[in-house]
Design brief:
Layout: E1 2-6, H1 11-22, E2 26-31, E3 50-54, E4 69-72, H2 79-84, H3 86-107, E5 110-116, H4 143-163, E6 167-172, E7 175-176, H5 187-197, E8 201-204, E9 210-212, E10 214-215, H6 216-228, E11 235-237, E12 242-244, H7 245-256, E13 262-265, H8 280-286, H9 294-306, H10 309-315
Parallel strand pairs: 1-2, 1-4, 2-3, 4-5, 5-6, 6-11, 7-10, 8-13
Antiparallel strand pairs: 9-12
Helix pairs in contact: 1-6, 3-4, 5-7, 5-10, 7-9
The chain binds nicotinamide-adenine-dinucleotide (NAD) and uridine-5'-diphosphate.
The site of uridine-5'-diphosphate (UDP) has 15 residues, from helix 5 and strand 8.
Length: 330
């Protein structure tokens, strides 16, 4: 297959591109490096089956030659990134998605949208099944991301219904692993970076809020299953093992053997109190489920971070209170 991966220089996109190349697909990555890094693609640059196009997908998406599938991953994804890039986030979820859909339609290719568990907002149904419509604040600070992805799902379904375009929507839950940026402000990267440099771990709120963390290798295998199949979805992809943020902090301190302390900051506005995917559909329709236990995935991620001490030292000072209005409480 010849697959276009938008956002291919990012965390998930670079792992997805590597997996597709590994099985012999041709990959064309389109990325503007707003939150991605060229070095994520070091192993692929120079590979004749891999093409990197530096471009902003909100300005159009023209790819010469046949295209068999478009995987649309381009979008800022960490809360500090989309707070910093609010209009860009809305643009890539709306215009960027539509350009991806048009490219797929011109080629009669399959279009796979990387949506998110954030479409469920602060969920009142738990665990989250795909038929839950969500609880999103349309004017809150997270809305630039949540509503962009909800619109992206809507426009994807409109192309499916109007043009009979072959589409698939995956709703991705919190994913972690090598190649995340230490300064991206997400909880796994912040805690690992802080534990390794000996800074206090910054817990927002009481640490009782939950997330369900999926290792990147598992997650991208689910995206590939979606690319290969004919399921429209939406289908949740994530690890149903649910942890509190406090437990995550303890596990990371244990794995890193760090003596870092804990500092508490206010919970950011509209921060979801709990999140856990129901993956019944993914199991049944895609034959997919995660296989890497969280402790093992964290160990692998810690090893990767440990090999980059300068980067961690440079990132650490920016992490304390990385969320808007972050004030040290204790
Ligand atoms: P990331 O920030 O590492 O990657 C996003 C990539 O998109 C970056 O390389 C960035 O430069 C690129 N990009 C952004 N805007 C662009 C534009 N206008 N044109 C071209 N490229 C652009 O984030 P990630 O964690 O790899 O997330 C990838 C996708 O998966 C996103 O769509 C995100 O919403 C979704 N997702 C991720 C997670 C997660 O836990 N990682 C969870 C839910 C959904
Ligand atoms: N969080 C935290 N400390 C940090 C970063 C995040 O306690 O340094 C919390 C955050 O408030 C949220 C959870 O960890 O409750 C997951 O945050 P992340 O930004 O990783 O992802 P998302 O909120 O998008 O799920």
């Amino acid at each position: 297959m010849r697959v276009v991966v938008t956002g291919g220089a990012g965390f998930l996109g670079s792992h997805l591109s590597a997996l597709l190349r590994g099985r012999g697909d041709q990959v064309i990555c389109v990325d503007n490096f707003s939150t991605g890094r060229r070095e994520n693609l070091d192993a692929l640059l120079g590979d004749p089956g891999f093409t990197l196009i530096e471009a902003d997908v909100t300005e159009g998406l023209e790819i010469p030659g046949r295209v068999d599938a478009v995987a649309h991953l381009a979008s800022p994804a960490s809360p500090p990134d989309y707070h910093r890039l609010p209009l860009e986030t809305l643009a890539v979820g709306s215009r960027g998605t539509e350009y991806g859909l048009r490219l797929a339609a011109r080629n009669q290719a399959r279009f796979v949208l990387a949506s998110t568990s954030e479409v469920y907002g602060d969920p009142v149904v738990h665990p989250q099944r795909e038929d839950y419509w969500g609880n999103v604040n349309p004017v809150g600070p997270r809305s630039v991301y949540d509503e962009a992805k909800r619109y992206a799902e809507a426009v994807t379904m409109a192309y499916h219904r109007t043009y009979d375009l072959d589409v698939g929507i995956v709703r991705i839950f919190n994913t972690y692993g090598p190649r995340m940026r230490p300064q991206d402000g997400r909880v796994v990267t912040s805690f690992i970076t802080q534990a390794l440099v000996g800074d206090p771990l910054t817990i927002y709120g009481d640490g009782e809020q939950t997330r369900s963390f999926c290792y990147v290798d598992d997650l991208v295998a689910g995206i590939v299953a979606m690319i290969d199949g004919d399921v429209t979805g939406p289908v949740n992809l994530g690890n149903p093992v649910e942890w509190t943020v406090g437990r995550l902090a303890s596990e990371i301190l244990r794995i890193t053997e760090s003596s870092s302390t804990i500092e508490r900051y206010p919970l950011p506005t509209d921060d979801p109190t709990r999140r856990r995917p129901d993956i019944t559909l993914a199991r049944r329709l895609l034959g997919w489920e995660p296989v890497v236990p969280v402790e093992e995935g964290l160990r692998r991620t810690v090893e990767w971070f440990r090999s980059r001490p300068e980067e961690l030292l440079a990132a650490a000072p920016s992490l304390a209170g990385a969320q808007p209005g972050g004030v040290l409480l204790s």
